[in-house]
Amino acid sequence: MSTEPTVCFIESLGFLEEQTHKEGEIISRTLQLSGKSSAYAYIRTEEELRAVAKEFGESDHRYLHLSCHGTVNAKGRATGFHLTTGPIASDDMAEILAPHVENRRVFLSSCLAARSTFAQSLLSQSKCLSVLAPMNSIKFDDAAVFWTAFYHLMFKGGKRSMAVRRIKKNVGICASLVQERFRLYYRCDDDTIEKVTIGPFTRPDAA
Fold first, then answer.
1. Torsion of Cα atoms, 82 then 88 then 89 then 90, to 10°
2. CB 67: neighbour CB atoms within 10 A?
C-alpha cells in the first residue's frame, strides 16, 4: 500500500486533563500551521483505540504518534499505557497495533515507554520499521517542544521520508533542548532489530 509522509496522532488522557494537556493536538496543529497535513483523534477506551488503529492502517498516513500516560508496577518498572478509562499492557498495545503498522514508523509520547516491552513486541509481531520513545518521565511541555522540533526538522525542506540516520541525528538535536533521553528501536535491512539510546546522560543540575 502506498503511503504519504504524514502523521496520525492518537491521544488519550485523564478526564481532568482533557482541557489543558492535549500535547498531541498541539503538535498536530503546529504541523498544520506549517502546511504539513496531519490527522488527530482523541480516544478514551480500548475499543476506540482498536477502531482508530484499524482506520490508520487503511489510511495513507505513514507515521503513527501515540500520546498517553505510561504505567508502572509496584517496583517502578514500565508496564504499559493508560487510556482515559483504564490501563493497557505493553504487549496488548503491540498486539492491537501490529496488523496496521507495516512499513510504518511509530512514535510515543508516554513516560518510560522506551523501558517497557512494547517496542520489541511490536517489531517482532509486525513489519513496523521503527519505534521512538522517551526513556524517562517527561513533562507535557518538554514533550511538546521535543516533538514539534523533531517533526519540523524531519520534514524541513520538503523531505518525504525518515531514514534512520536522519532520525538519530534530529533526535540528538531535539533531546538536547529538553535534556531528556530517547530510545530508538529500528529494523535493519537483514530484518534484525537494533536499539540505540540518544540524548544527554547528565542533567545540568546534576553536574
1. -70
2. 27
Report the C-alpha gap between 111 and 115 in whole angstroms. Answer: 9
Query: What is the average pLDDT value for the chain, to the nearest integer?
Result: 94
Q: What pLDDT score does 205 carry?
A: 46
| Rg of the chain, C-alpha, whole Å | 16
Task: Give Cα 121 to chain centroid, integer Å.
Answer: 15
Output the nine-digit C-alpha cell for 36.
Answer: 504539513
CATH superfamily placement of domain 4-206: NAD(P)-binding Rossmann-like Domain (3.40.50.720)
Asked if 99 and 141 touch (Cβ cutoff 8 Å), the reply is: no
In the chain, which residue ranges form alpha helices assigned H by DSSP?
A: 23-33, 46-58, 90-97, 118-125, 140-155, 164-178
Give the span between the Cα atoms of 8 and 187, in whole angstroms: 21
Neighbours of 53 (CB within 10 A): 23
The reply to whether the predicted model has a pTM over 0.85 is yes
Give the cell for residue 186.
Answer: 529500528
User: Which three three-digit cell numbers place residue 146?
Assistant: 521535543
Using alpha carbons, select from 104, 19, 8 the residue that is nearest to residue 49. Answer: 8
